[in-house]
Design the sequence.
């Protein structure tokens, strides 16, 4: 089975496609599938993604009505016999995990792919893969711009890619780390801010 490469984005919060970092633009063009998990915030950006035939999108809480009227709040896609539950997401692990599992309870998914928190997650310790690519714009509390890549074949290989651009407002670093701790859980703080 030939593996499929997925470029996973979330929480771009940018005005138009011209603001997309060149590394992400290259990753999009190299991908077999492109997934954006919401908070485009710009219809222009959605229009850009819709030019690709291999695009799947989810509406986020910050998206305007014109985006929410087009894109679903959640969906399931199947790639190489792996079922992926896509949604924008929820805050805090006990809410995120339980609500996400409940949302896809009857869908037999292999992974739950989400955004919203701006904090990366790459965790299958519970038996379910929870994957969050973080914020492509390094919005607080994300310390850096990130996006995700999944390689789906017999298994799901996954990676968080750093764009090497730290958030500019370093004054909020301490409070950001506290939020990451709350969102990820204290025992997962290192996993949330390290490179995979």
Sequence:
């Amino acid at each position: 089975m030939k593996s499929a490469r997925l470029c996973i984005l979330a929480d771009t919060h940018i005005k138009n496609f011209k603001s997309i970092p060149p590394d992400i633009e290259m990753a999009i063009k190299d991908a077999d599938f492109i997934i954006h998990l919401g908070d485009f915030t710009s219809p222009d950006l959605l229009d850009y993604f819709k030019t690709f035939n291999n695009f799947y999108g989810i509406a986020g809480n910050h998206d305007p009505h014109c985006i929410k009227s087009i894109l679903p709040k959640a969906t399931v896609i199947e790639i190489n016999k792996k079922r992926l539950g896509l949604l924008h997401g929820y805050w805090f692990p006990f809410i995120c995990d339980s609500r996400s599992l409940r949302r896809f309870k009857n869908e037999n998914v292999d992974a739950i792919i989400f955004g919203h928190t701006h904090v990366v997650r790459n965790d299958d310790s519970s038996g379910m893969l929870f994957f969050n690519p973080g914020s492509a714009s390094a919005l607080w509390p994300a310390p850096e711009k990130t996006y995700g890549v999944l390689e789906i074949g017999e298994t799901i290989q996954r990676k968080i890619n750093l764009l090497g651009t730290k958030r500019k407002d370093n004054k909020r670093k301490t409070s950001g780390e506290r939020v990451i701790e709350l969102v990820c859980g204290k025992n997962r703080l290192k996993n949330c801010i390290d490179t995979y």
